[in-house]
Design goal:
With 71 residues, the chain is mostly loops. Helix content is 13%, strand content 11%. It has one helix at residues 32-40, and strands at residues 14-16, 44-45, 56-58. The chain is globular.
Length: 71
């Protein structure tokens, strides 16, 4: 995030699921079917961010690199 700026969570555009099981930078433990439900509905998946955030789904473009290349 940006210091001093409100996050997508503050606007109810993002949610974190099972943070204790899907920690920032850790392995994603959700099934491909669970993730596909959100992806198919237009959500961005933290599981696809360059710095994996498996707990995070958002319904707004947050500028995260999902290509594996530097921004």
């Amino acid at each position: 995030g940006v210091p001093g700026a409100l996050s997508a969570h503050a606007y109810a555009l993002a949610i974190d699921f099972n943070a204790h099981e899907n920690p920032l930078g850790g392995p994603v433990k959700f099934s491909p079917a669970f993730l596909a439900c959100f992806k198919d509905a237009g959500f961005d998946l933290g599981a696809e961010f360059k710095r994996v955030d498996g707990m995070h789904v958002s319904f707004c473009w947050e500028g995260h690199d999902t290509s594996g290349t530097p921004q």
